Each structure stands twice: as structure tokens, then as C-alpha cells.
Automatic annotation (TrEMBL):
Lineage top rank: taxon: Eukaryota
InterPro entries the UniProt entry points to: Aspartic_peptidase_AS (IPR001969), Retrotrans_gag_dom (IPR005162)
Organism: Pleurodeles waltl
Ranges of compositional bias, category Acidic residues: 238-248
Protein name: Retrotransposon gag domain-containing protein
Gene3D superfamilies associated with the record: Zinc finger, CCHC-type
Length: 302
């Protein structure tokens, strides 16, 4: 291109090529000069081209061509240009047909391959145009999808307070201001240590709280003592025994005498026992801590 732009003739191109190539080109030109000096510019150009061009195996070059595939980041035009470079050393009989076949097999876009195969005949130029159109549509769709999925940033606004919100806020403030300690009954949080720390409650006898905030079940109003009827006995002389009142622990136990043959007498569990050769009718033990016997029964044996 430099020689064309400068319109130099062949006589001047030879020394200019050696000058621009430098000492390395000058040494190579001496080794390829088989005619002996002086040699022409065309001969020097062909000799240098043959020297720098690597030796190619046509079979291996055709193998590389048929293995070529388009990566996702490569455009269809770049892929087609790469196929041309691979085909230049293959010595193919019909380069255009081979390039079209390899372009269809190796293109990345599946939709492009389907559209090409749908047409009976399609030129290479139309394939490249269709491929470029597919690439642009895919890129534009990806940009639109990314923009639609991007969250919209909301601008802050001042909301209008409602009466319900004001009442709720006022209630929360009141609850915060009126918080009390559940151990001493004073305001919480404390400025220092709680006043009930280490104090004993007079109601439940436990530490670390006052009586006025005691939550023990024993703090409830005491119930009146219960009165229940104790087990009943039968006396042998059919006389009423003395009532024995036991008022310990707030419970009164009452013992009544019954007449034999009565309705209650028939329902109670009883049995006959022999005490010093004398038959005595007695109640079956109901789990009481003591056994009771009539005084008239014990007098003869005491």
C-alpha cells in the first residue's frame, strides 16, 4: 500500500523495501538470493513471502475448517472472515460451497440455521444479512428485558397522617411513659438499682419483690375453713358418743354416732372383728391416720 501511494517504480521499490525492512530483512534477502545480485523487486517479494509463509498440510487445513464453530461473542461477519482464512490454505475445488456449508453447520444462532434451511436456495450475502438481523434483534430484546426487570426507584413523599394513626401513636407513647416495674411497682426503667432487690415479700416469703405486686396464688383472699364429716362409728350400747372437734390446720372434723339398722348404717362399709373374745362391728379402714373405737367397747379391757 505504501508503494502504491508513493507511485514508486520497481527499480526504487527494491531498495526502499530493504531500507524499511531493516537489517533482518537485508540478511534474509541475501540468503534467498539464488540469482545473485542484482535481483528484481518481484523476485525479492516472492522470496520473502515463501520464507515467512509456514508450510501447510491441505488435509489438516480442511480438518480445521470443518471443525470451526462460532462462539457466542463472535459476530456472523467475523465468523465468515475466519472461515475464509482457514479455507485459503485448503486447496478446495469450490471454496464458496464449502464456506456456505460450514457457515450453516457452525453458526451459533439456532433460529438462523432453521431459517436458512427453510429456504431452498439462499446466497451467502443473504445468510450474512439474516444473521446480522438476528443478532441485533436478540441484543435489543436482552436490553429491553433487563430494563423491564430493573426495580423502579420510588421517590419519597410525605404521607398524610390519619386520626387512627395519631391515636395509635399517642397510645404507644402513653404506654411507653407509663411502664412500671413488676417487682417494686415503681416507674421503669430505674435510675439505679430496683428498690425491691433483696427484699422479702410478706405474702409468699420470696425475695426480690414487694407484697403489693406479689403474683403468688397465696395472695388471694383466704377461704373459710372447710367442715367435713369424718368416718362414722357404731357404739355397742346404742348411745351417742361425744363429738370430737379437731380444729388444727383450719379444718374441723366431726364424728357422729349412728343407730344400727338406719339407712346410712346400711350403706357404709363395715365388718365384724373379735376383740378379747368379744365380737365388735367396725368400719373398714378408709385411709385414716388413726383408728377410732367406742369408749364403751374399750372400758372392759382397759
Amino acid at each position: 500500500m505504501y508503494f502504491v501511494a508513493t507511485t514508486l517504480d520497481n527499480d526504487h521499490r527494491h531498495p526502499m523495501l530493504l531500507h524499511l525492512g531493516g537489517a533482518a530483512i537485508h540478511k534474509i534477502s541475501k540468503s534467498v538470493n539464488e540469482e545473485g545480485p542484482p535481483f528484481t523487486y518481484q523476485y525479492l517479494k516472492s522470496a520473502l513471502t515463501a520464507h515467512f509463509e509456514p508450510l501447510a498440510n491441505p488435509d489438516y487445513e480442511r480438518f480445521l475448517l470443518r471443525q470451526a464453530r462460532q462462539p457466542p461473542e463472535e459476530s456472523v461477519h467475523t465468523f465468515y472472515a475466519r472461515l475464509w482464512d482457514l479455507a485459503s490454505t485448503c486447496t478446495l475445488p469450490d471454496v464458496e460451497d464449502e464456506l456456505q456449508a460450514q457457515f450453516i453447520q457452525g453458526c451459533y444462532l439456532v433460529k438462523l440455521r432453521e431459517n436458512i434451511l427453510q429456504a431452498p436456495v439462499m446466497s451467502m450475502a443473504n445468510m450474512l444479512t439474516l444473521g446480522r438481523s438476528r443478532e441485533l434483534s436478540k441484543m435489543h430484546a436482552a436490553h429491553m428485558e433487563a430494563a423491564l426487570q430493573k426495580p423502579v426507584k420510588a421517590e419519597p413523599v410525605n404521607a398524610v397522617a390519619t386520626a387512627h394513626a395519631e391515636r395509635r401513636k399517642s397510645k404507644q407513647t402513653t404506654n411507653t411513659m407509663k411502664r412500671t416495674c413488676y417487682t417494686c411497682g415503681g416507674s421503669y426503667p430505674h435510675q439505679g438499682q430496683c428498690l425491691a432487690q433483696g427484699k422479702r415479700c410478706t405474702n409468699c416469703n420470696k425475695l426480690n419483690h414487694f407484697t403489693k405486686v406479689c403474683r403468688s396464688t397465696s395472695s388471694k383472699t383466704s377461704k373459710p375453713p372447710k367442715t367435713r364429716q369424718a368416718a362414722q362409728i357404731h357404739t355397742s350400747d346404742d348411745q351417742e358418743g361425744d363429738m370430737d372437734d379437731d380444729e388444727s390446720e383450719g379444718t374441723v372434723h366431726v364424728i357422729h354416732a349412728m343407730q344400727p339398722g338406719g339407712s346410712l348404717w346400711k350403706r357404709i362399709p363395715k365388718c365384724n372383728i373379735q376383740v378379747v373374745e368379744k365380737l365388735v362391728v367396725a368400719l373398714i379402714d378408709t385411709g385414716a391416720s388413726i383408728n377410732i373405737m367406742a369408749l364403751q367397747v374399750m372400758k372392759p379391757y382397759s
